[in-house]
Design brief:
Length: 135
């Protein structure tokens, strides 16, 4: 039986997370076909953190063992890249410009614990909000 989240009567594909813009930037910096598998905020006490170290590696399929068939990272292929918060925000802006969708939610909903609530950024519309120029 599939686990159903409370207050939701929607097909599972709408339960996805919004794009991870840090990961999207990291994947461009990593070699082609690599996975990003470790995320660290280097200034994790800052609110919000501004610099992230992402470790990627070449994926391979496990040929045996209890996790047979699942993917792992080939040893010796790990590469570290750095992504700044500014780069992630620029990526989010590009996504919103391109798709017209809010980058912080999926169809106006964000996950909060086991619930989905209206996204505060777009007011639950799911549409990209035109940013005000900072004064
Ligand atoms: Zn939103």
């Amino acid at each position: 039986m599939t686990k159903q989240l409370s207050m939701l009567d929607q097909p599972t594909e709408t339960l996805a997370y919004p794009p991870n813009f840090i990961e999207r930037v990291a994947l461009r910096k990593l070699p082609d076909g690599y996975w990003a598998y470790r995320f660290e905020a280097l200034d994790y006490t800052a609110k919000p953190p501004t610099i992230f170290r992402i470790t990627g590696g070449k994926p391979r399929t496990l040929k045996s063992g209890p996790r047979k068939g699942s993917l792992t990272v080939e040893s010796g292929t790990s590469v570290e890249v750095y992504v700044t918060r500014a780069e992630a925000l620029a990526e989010e802006q590009a996504y919103e410009d391109e798709t017209g969708k809010c980058g912080a939610c999926v169809d106006g909903k964000v996950r909060r614990f086991s619930e989905f609530v209206d996204c505060r950024r777009c007011g639950g519309t799911g549409r990209a909000v035109v940013k005000k120029v900072p004064t």
